[in-house]
């Protein structure tokens, strides 16, 4: 309707209400514990759809950090990794069995990305052995979720 009559105030207001309602509906808050491996966000993303994440909290892996992690000393790096220890990772998979082969990506505060495939979003802290870590992150995920 707004496209047909672009200056019609009631139609513009109605579209804003619909889009606002959609954004509130497709929003999920997930907790990611520092001392766990891959954790299910409870969200199934759709391929090609934009995703927005807001991340709050701190966790401790040697030192306290946010989702951006800390630089790993060169002598402890694996395969010349540029990923910081404690960085928040995400992976989209069809089933948890695929996590071992998944290609994770860095999740950043307030960043948008496009889901490269449809599937469940799993998250974790980058650490070889997370069992001695402390803390958690709260991740607000906004997108068009698959049913």
Question: What does this 3D model show about the protein?
Answer:
With 147 residues, this protein is mainly beta. Helix content is 12%, strand content 39%. It is elongated.
Based on Cα principal axes, name the global outline.
elongated
Structural category is mainly beta
Radius of gyration: 18 Å
Helix content: 10-25%
Order of helices and strands: HEEEEEEEEE
Low-pLDDT regions? none
Count the strands?
Answer: 9
Mean pLDDT: 82
- Helical segment tally? 1
* C-alpha termini separation: 27 Å
Strand content: 35-45%
What is this entry, summarized?
The protein contains 1 helix and 9 strands.
Which helices and strands occur, and which strands form pairs?
Layout: H1 9-25, E1 27-33, E2 39-45, E3 50-61, E4 63-65, E5 88-93, E6 105-106, E7 111-114, E8 119-125, E9 134-142
Antiparallel strand pairs: 1-9, 2-8, 3-4, 3-7, 3-9, 5-6, 5-8
Observed structural traits:
147 residues; five-stranded antiparallel β-sheet; four-stranded antiparallel β-sheet; mainly beta; 1 helix; elongated; 39% strand
């Amino acid at each position: 309707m707004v496209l047909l009559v672009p200056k019609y105030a009631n139609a513009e207001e109605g579209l804003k209400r619909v889009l606002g309602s959609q954004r509130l509906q497709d929003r999920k808050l997930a907790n990611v514990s520092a001392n766990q491996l891959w954790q299910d966000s409870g969200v199934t993303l759709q391929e090609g759809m934009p995703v927005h994440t807001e991340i709050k909290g701190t966790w401790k892996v040697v030192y306290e950090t946010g989702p951006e992690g800390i630089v790993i000393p060169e002598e402890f790096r694996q395969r010349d990794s540029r990923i910081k220890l404690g960085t928040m990772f995400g992976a989209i998979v069809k089933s948890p069995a695929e996590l071992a082969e998944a290609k994770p990506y860095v999740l950043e505060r307030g960043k948008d990305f496009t889901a490269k495939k449809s599937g469940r979003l799993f998250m974790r802290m980058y650490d070889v052995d997370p069992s001695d870590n402390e803390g958690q992150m709260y991740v607000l995920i906004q997108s068009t979720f698959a049913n």
